Amino acid sequence: MFENKSYWIVGASEGLGEAIAKDLHRAGARLILSARNADRLAAVAQASGGAQIVPMDVTDTDAVAQAMTQIGDLDGVIYCVGQYDPIPATDWQSKAVEAMCEANFMGAVRVLGHVVPRFVAKGAGHVVLIGSLAGHRGLPGSIGYGASKAALMHLGESLQADLRDSPLLVQVVNPGFIKTRLTAKNGFRMPMIQTPEEAASNVMNAMRSNRLEVNFPAPFSWLFTIGKRLPKSLFWRLLGKPEHTPTAPGTKGQGSGTLDPNT
Predict the structure, then answer these.
(1) Where are the stretches annotated Disordered (predicted)?
(2) Could you count the other beta carbons within 10 Å of the beta carbon of residue 150?
(3) How far apart, in whole angstroms, are the C-alpha atoms of residue 76 and residue 208?
(4) How far is CA 106 from CA 83, 139, 148, 218, in A?
(5) Which of 15, 21, 69, 131 could serve as 153's disulfide partner, Cβ 3.0–4.6 Å?
(6) How far apart are CA 83 and CA 145, in angstroms?
(7) How far apart are CA 259 and CA 18, in angstroms?
């Protein structure tokens, strides 16, 4: 399925993005890797068969446009960028909240604004958006992060609605907790936390399945997918009361898409 196909991974410098890059390389894909950290990208590229690297800050409109001039024909794009800070409404931090929205959602808007017209024009393309279980319902301590991931997931659904009768495939993949340097700072139990490699395997399976939406890991993800239909008070009780400010699931780290910006 991936052999000789060209995939652009935006957010590939570490964590989930890095693990996906290695898996796609092993599957025979040609890779273009982007993130802000050029040194980290170079290391990932070397471990991924000498992939092309295009350093880019998704929060910079001009930088995204410039990056597109370096990218040739594409078969797919994986938006695996994210920025995360655990911020409750009682401690609103405007700059941090805005930064999460810029990286997690507006960055995707900037990238897709170039990629989707290309795919539409050639009548083929694969768009994969890495959302989060946190995007399904409002969570405590998730101002900025949860909302930006929910917006990304909604964007994916809108793309699916518009492109459902075309050869283009749009998928939204929503992971739970992923073990990275950033989730390491959490002071509470993270149910069913996965390694980046385990999460990447789930993403690859999702991409092969052609399913429009995939949530993992089960059964933890069921709390969020079924929880959308529960009364909010019951849903929050099921989550339990954390000892510390809660961190949203789906945090992956720079390069993976949910914790550190423009991974």
Answers:
(1) 243-263
(2) 20
(3) 13
(4) 12, 21, 9, 29
(5) 131
(6) 7
(7) 14
The DSSP line for 118-155 is: HHHHHT--EEEEE--GGGSS--TTBTTHHHHHHHHHHH
**How much is the pTM?**
0.89
- Can you say whether the dihedral through the CA atoms of 185, 94, 242, 222 is positive or negative? negative
pLDDT tens for residues 87-115?
889 999 999 999 999 999 999 999 999 99
Question: 253 in the Ramachandran plot: left (φ > 0), alpha (ψ -120 to 50) or beta?
Answer: left
From CA 85, how far away is CA 79, in angstroms rounded?
Answer: 19
Residues 35-67 have pLDDT tens digits of 999 999 999 999 999 999 999 999 999 999 999
Six-digit token string for 237? 């009780």
- What does the DSSP 8-state code read for residue 194? B
User: How is the chain split into domains, by residue range?
Assistant: 6-239
Is 145 a catalytic site residue?
A: yes
Instruction: Name the residue type at position 177.
Output: F
Determine phi and psi for 29, rounding to 5 degrees.
-80, 155
Contact 197, 175 (CB under 8 A): no
How many CB atoms neighbour CB 69 within 10 A? 9
User: CA-to-CA distance for 78 and 122, rounded, in angstroms?
Assistant: 18
Which one-letter amino acid corresponds to residue 220?
F
